[in-house]
Design brief:
Number of strands: 0
Shape: globular
CATH superfamily of the largest domain: Clc chloride channel
Strand content: under 5%
CATH class of the largest domain: Mainly Alpha
Largest sheet: none
Number of domains: 2
Distance between the termini: 38 Å
């Protein structure tokens, strides 16, 4: 009994420290990202430096981040089959690269960065205390989930995210209470530090009718196909670019040039950065059908060419605007269709349907 008690106390302490690391790093990241976004919106000419930014990020990863280039896939691999410690430099590299991506206008998310930082810092914790392989898996799950929950201000989503991201359609319950401690600790820290979290309007569902249910079902099929198309395109686009441009700095520079060409060709900066204002507006009035299409193109170029930031916000941008744009067809309020698309596309594309809810 006493041995079990001390094991429980030990895990509670490790999970708490994992949450502290994830919450602190996520808070720093959110403050820096908020400042970078505000500066870019006030000084739009900064986007002319996007090719140089891509060149610099590519050089950073070519010189110091080859092992961390896989991002979230590296975290998943180390949870499923632990072979080596995640490099400590993953956290500062992805933090700097993501902030620079948004500072210059790349179309990317932010939660993937928080996941990588949380997992990387938790792995350093595991190495410091020499935790065995199975326990290291638990710390990686708690760190990844706590980072995700801290970034979006949703600790319950963080608890499920780390366990659900590993395998399509399955949740591994091996770290439930540890993830709970880590995610809530991280959330409390971001709340205490007043980290800037995005607020979305509350959506009240209308009474269920046959027409509404059919509309939701049809839209759900569309969101599922969209999520699948995004995942397929991202995977193959990254492969094609890597084969054609093996040099990471050159890849980033050309990606920056392509984004500039799109911006000036379309005459709008609507699809740069996070696009939070577009998501929020899609809940009020129907979006344009080309919004999700163009966001997809901008995001593919940004992430496949080596810029950093993750896929969460671009996915919810696409899901929200796609649902909102199609809402008149199904006689559905844009807020409802946008909110459902928000959750559906992210949950389907990331294999994490429960946190998306």
């Amino acid at each position: 009994m006493s041995s079990r008690f001390f094991i429980t106390v030990r895990w509670a302490a490790l999970s708490g420290v994992s949450g502290v690391l994830a919450g602190t790093s996520a808070s720093l990241f959110l403050f820096l990202l908020d400042g970078a976004t505000r500066f870019r919106e006030l000084h739009s000419q900064i986007i002319f430096f996007l090719p140089l930014g891509g060149l610099f990020i590519g050089y950073l990863y070519q010189r110091w981040g080859r092992k961390t280039q896989q991002g979230n896939n590296l975290v998943i691999d180390q949870i499923l089959e632990p072979t080596e410690r995640i490099p400590a430099r993953m956290a500062p590299l992805v933090l700097l690269s993501t902030v620079l991506t948004h500072f210059l206008g790349g179309s990317a998310g932010r939660e993937g960065t928080a996941v990588q930082m949380g997992a990387s810092l938790s792995d350093q914790l595991a190495h410091f205390f020499k935790v065995p392989s199975r326990e290291r898996k638990i710390l990686l799950i708690t760190g990844a989930g706590a980072g995700f929950g801290a970034a979006i201000g949703a600790p319950w989503a963080g608890i499920l995210f780390g366990m659900e991201m590993l395998q399509v359609g399955k949740t591994r319950w091996i770290a439930l209470w540890q993830s709970g401690i880590a995610s809530w600790t991280a959330f409390v820290i971001t709340h205490f530090l007043h980290a800037p979290h995005t607020q979305y309007p509350k959506v009240l569902a209308p009474p269920a009718t046959v027409t509404l249910c059919i509309g939701v079902l049809v839209l759900s099929l569309g969101w599922g196909f969209w999520a699948r198309a995004f995942s397929w395109l991202m995977h193959h686009f990254e492969k094609w670019i890597a084969l054609g441009l093996p040099s990471l700095p050159l890849r980033g520079a050309i990606g920056g040039v392509l984004i500039l060409v799109l911006v000036f060709g379309l005459g709008t900066e609507r699809y740069l950065g996070l696009g939070i204002s577009v998501i929020q507006a899609s809940f009020e009035i129907p979006a344009q059908l080309w919004d999700p299409i163009l966001k997809l193109i901008f995001t593919l170029i940004t992430l496949a060419s080596g810029f950093k930031g993750g896929e969460f916000i671009p996915l919810v941008f696409m899901g929200s605007t796609l649902g909102s744009a199609l809402s008149p067809v199904f006689e559905m309020p844009p807020a409802l269709a946008g909110a459902l698309g928000f959750a559906a596309v992210f949950g389907a594309a990331s294999n994490t349907p429960s946190p998306a809810l």
